[in-house]
């Protein structure tokens, strides 16, 4: 797609898919955060995390989700903070958060880390040291105000937030980093083809165009025909190109590529790098993403980073991801611990 076509796709998308209600608040928070840290000479990174959803109805009952628990994003955010960055953490609502991730989305409840002592609730002995380590880092981020948490749910909310925050980061030039770990929907239902009410399972109760308030004459993108549900999605414009060329042309941009077929991963990561001309693509496979990733860049070519098999253990917080494989107490050998 040439740049005129991309600009037109961008303008069409943002004209026809209205901004989220909290966009203004998010912009105000992000502007203040970015200005403050830029004044203090800190680098700012936008970490995106979790999956976007595609609603099928305006009054949404059903939606299509994208796989991601938010482990990669939340873990990476901790490492950026540890290394002195200010982090804007744009995540899917209720997906994993930096620091609290150690005690949530687990087979154990956070209450399992507690006990009663002298009529008070305390952390049990076994978890004292680890929790103290995590708590201290969390408190430091709070004290320094280096973590701003914003959230999205739908693809449209994500794209509005990404675009506006990226534009705010533009004046930072190369001091702005974009670390795009979110799993972004490739297909969606445009607002003008979305039915208002819950899709019915039989045609007898199905909405027709007039009932749904639609006058464009377009078929709803999700509808019942006979007893079948037909979903006819449209492609989401590839906004990575807009980010690289227009929203933050001087920023350092790292995207992720998730595949399931090993024979495609490096090919597609390389293709993405060539297509978008950004700095780094980190490729991962669904089944091995916690142990290995491949970095594809124009400087280093293809470089694999693997967690040694003897370190693929469950930590106190459950199965760890690659960038989160460090022992939080720092007692074990950091050895091949990859830096993000
Ligand atoms: O959260 P976890 O459970 O730990 O899982 C982490 C992860 C596997 C989700 C993560 O490591 C990962 O791979 N994230 C990216 C998955 C993805 O959406 O890939 P993609 O091929 O759809 O997109 C590739 C890149 O293009 C993304 O960085 C995205 O920001 C960008 N994109 C995608 C679609 C679109 N319309 N415009 C875009 O710019």
Automatic annotation (TrEMBL):
InterPro entries: CoaB-like_sf. One of its GO terms (biological process) is coenzyme A biosynthetic process. GO terms for molecular function: ligase activity. Keywords: Ligase. The keyword Ligase applies. This is Phosphopantothenate-cysteine ligase.
